[in-house]
Specification:
The chain is mainly alpha-helical and about 290 residues long. Helix content is about 55%, strand content about 5%. It contains 13 helices and 3 strands, in the order αααααααβββαααααα. It has helices at about 5-15, 20-40, 50-60, 65-85, 110-120, 125-135, 140-145, 170-190, 210-225, 230-240, 245-255, 260-265, 270-280; strands at about 150, 155-160, 165-170. A 3-stranded antiparallel sheet has the order 1-2-3. The model has no long low-confidence stretch (mean pLDDT about 85).
Length: about 290
């Protein structure tokens, strides 16, 4: 499709993650199919009205606000690329504003629900769930985690944008991790060991798709809720805060470049805030 391959090559040259590149590719492919293949226009003839028409279409098919916003962001990035390469004379996406949307706090599991989920029978699946929650990993980070990334009581994690961070392994996680590596992982090994921590029945890297499927199925059975891998990361951050971890520490553990991103993960109600304030503020601790 016109200019899309050039754009994807550009993203790859900037070391975007595969997941990010796939998202861009889908967003732009769907957009170009709508305005060019179906609309019969050339890309050089597109105006901001064509983009707004597409955004309205996404809303009409009931996509979530966050998905629509991501699509518009992808489109804006695509047109900035075309403009920088002088492939278009003007950038129509500049005139299209982002939609206002309500801020949605991610949901999370309470500690009892996490315990129920960790009770899955297959020990390999249990290992996946324990690492997602116990170390706050993204599913993409878990999928590519290798034995060489485990260093004593720490994990070396390559996150978004190729950035590395060090994540401490809680004692309870380390205990099961050691057991898994010694007793469970060898059962999945075949002739060639590629070094991935989690393996499928063919000895290859366990896929993110499988992990999502297991967590969704077991999550509903054990908690009655819709559970997905990133929900465990939300829960990890929330439980850390409830145990009085500093939000800057949580930011580092999650690998967020901005504290604003971390704040979206935090779940506290007003009673918890007041209680914590009274506990730590010096004037509140003074007796009459």
């Amino acid at each position: 499709m016109i200019y899309l391959d050039d754009f994807i090559s550009f993203l790859k040259s900037k070391n975007f993650s595969q997941n990010t590149i796939r998202a861009y590719q889908k967003d732009i492919s769907d957009f170009l199919n709508f305005v060019i293949e179906k609309g019969g226009k050339k890309i050089s003839d597109l105006t901001f009205k064509d983009i707004e028409k597409y955004i309205r279409y996404l809303s009409e098919i009931n996509l979530e606000d966050s998905t629509i916003e991501r699509n518009l962001s992808s489109i804006k990035t695509f047109f900035r690329f075309l403009e920088s390469r002088e492939l278009i004379k003007h950038n129509p996406a500049e005139l299209v504003p982002f939609r206002k949307r309500s801020k949605k706090i991610p949901s999370y599991l309470d500690e009892d629900e996490v315990t129920e989920l960790i009770g899955v029978e297959r020990e390999r699946d249990k290992m996946a769930i324990i690492l997602l929650y116990g170390c706050g990993l993204r599913i993409s980070e878990l999928e590519k985690l290798k034995l060489q990334d485990i260093s004593g009581d720490f994990l070396k994690i390559q996150g978004k944008g190729g950035k590395w961070r060090v994540v401490p392994i809680p004692e309870s996680v380390k205990e099961f991790l050691d057991f898994y590596i010694k007793n469970i992982r060898p059962k999945y090994l075949k002739e060639k060991d590629e070094g991935y921590l989690l393996l499928n029945k063919y000895g290859k890297r366990l896929s993110a798709r499988y992990i999502r499927k297991i967590i969704k199925m077991e999550g509903f059975i054990r908690t009655g809720k819709n559970v997905w891998p990133h929900l465990l990361r939300h829960s990890y951050a929330t439980h850390l805060l409830k145990n009085e971890a500093d939000i800057r520490v949580i930011q580092e553990l999650l690998g967020h470049s901005s504290i604003n991103t971390t704040q979206k993960y935090i779940h506290t109600n007003i009673e918890e805030i007041i209680s914590l304030y009274k506990k730590i503020h010096p004037r509140e601790n003074q007796k009459d």
